């Protein structure tokens, strides 16, 4: 009894450590611009086998492995919500071949090399090869954010990284079933069809019910996100009732169907699922890292490095070559695809669960499975994470670094400001719903966005111009709210700025970082009408010059939130209130 109480008392502490590290490591990775998986796995190993602060198997008991599988399913649901078919103009056939023919090629090469390197049975080698087929959005998408490849390469990798997970996991399940029950090839092929079909069916049915309920407004707004989270869990559980481990396919399908339907908006679902996804991702990697046996990892590492080298240098290029034959895909895009196949959370979680399943079912144990897969995850993420940016640049598929400004306003003074910025070689885009502002922008030769704010065209335009920051220059509450919602989704909240509302405007909320220090909208508008805008050196500002942007060179303009810097040109608005002449 005393031991039980002591064990239970450790659980809240362990959960706190897991959540703190899960969020903290992702924050640090974002600041350092490195793959978050590396920091998460390192932290998990440190708090687990190194310092013995948490023991997931002991503290979470029998619920651990089912919870890990469900968490992976929710991550795939979140990834599926980001897959828009209409955004994928080219490369659909390549994706289909990568997750079928390419997956088989990777599996066979991994199977053969594993048989040669490790003293394991043919079945266990096949199981290891199947698990190493999967990639995953948790590692692919962050690397795409770092490398910023052009289309269609970026979309192809995003789709492959999400769809390959249930395909590879299903392949591993069939191999596992063969190992534990001795079923033949025909039964294995049938099992693949049943598992994928059951998952897809469950996902489509739950999606259809959700769409009908949402379009009929049966679900109130405040319950929308909890209801969709519940729907993903229901789809996962229902599919697993039909066929073991079909839940991954179900949640992936559910996300894709919801993302591509047009009866109800899914913007709020995407934002909510991303927040949940980050929490789940951090938790999973910390937990799985804490379960690593360091001695076993060190023992298999030399041979695992050879296996990883073959996967990176042989299996992936061959799979991409076979999958892109006759596709018309540019050579540089094919080269980049051939150098991007990290393994992530699905491989780690499937290996952890299946290793225990082999023991429970009385099959031949495979103690090396988990350390080999974890070594593959760590090394491939490190290799691709450190080389993604230089390879994207070397193959010339990387987009240029964004440094432009989007001025979001329905006021004519924003056109004057945009004109001055453009004259100083700053990429600038006027985003407005005012026909007058749009026409004046076009008349001056400025780039202006004249379509719906919530359209995908806005995302394409922001990318095309190379927008880095957006500045809300408006006192219209509805316009500010609508624009901020969509701009922050694409650029990130840290890149969204807003001029402060007037002191007597209590109902106007700040939806971005404060731009231009304490300058309020009314002061900016009055000064723009009275004195206009100019470019002045930081050490030559007059008493009526209110600094807005610092021109940093290389076509970059940064919002000024503090004192102007001497020796640098600044864009200022000249307030007549301080004019003493």
List keywords for this structure.
2 domains, 581 residues, 21 helices, Na+/H+ antiporter like fold, disordered N terminus, single chain, six-stranded parallel beta sheet, Rossmann fold
Brief description of this entry?
By secondary structure, this protein is an alpha/beta fold.
Walk me through this protein's architecture.
By secondary structure, this protein is α/β, with parallel strands linked by helices. The chain folds into 2 domains: 8-71 and 85-192 and 289-394, Na+/H+ antiporter like fold, CATH 1.20.1530; 404-578, NAD(P)-binding Rossmann-like Domain (Rossmann fold, 3-Layer(aba) Sandwich). The protein is 63% helix and 9% strand. It is built from 21 helices and 10 strands. The strands form 2 sheets. The protein has a 6-stranded parallel β-sheet with strand order 3-2-1-4-5-6. It has a 4-stranded antiparallel β-sheet with strand order 7-10-8-9. Helix 1 packs antiparallel against helix 2 (36-50), helix 4 (64-80) packs parallel to helix 11 (247-260) and helix 13 packs antiparallel against helix 14 (331-338). Mean pLDDT is 83; it is low at 1-7.
Main sheet record: 6 strands, parallel
Mean of pLDDT: 83
Number of helices: 21
Strand order of the largest sheet: 3-2-1-4-5-6
* Relative strand content: 5-15%
CATH C-level name of the largest domain: Mainly Alpha
Q: For the record, give the distance between the C-alpha atoms at the N and C termini, rounded to a whole number.
A: 86 Å
List low-pLDDT spans: 1-7
Secondary structural class: alpha/beta
Rg over CA atoms: 27 Å
The number of domains: 2
* CATH fold title of the largest domain: Na+/H+ antiporter like fold
Number of strands: 10
Please tell me what the overall shape is.
Answer: elongated
